[in-house]
Amino acid sequence: MDVLQIKRLTNYLEFFQNDRSVFFSESKGWRIESPEVSQFRKELYDTEFLLVFDWVQWISENDEFKNVNNNVQDKIRDADLETLRKLMTSYIRGDRFNEGLFIDVILKGHVTNILLRLRELISE
Question: How many domains does the structure of the chain reveal?
Answer without folding.
Answer: 1
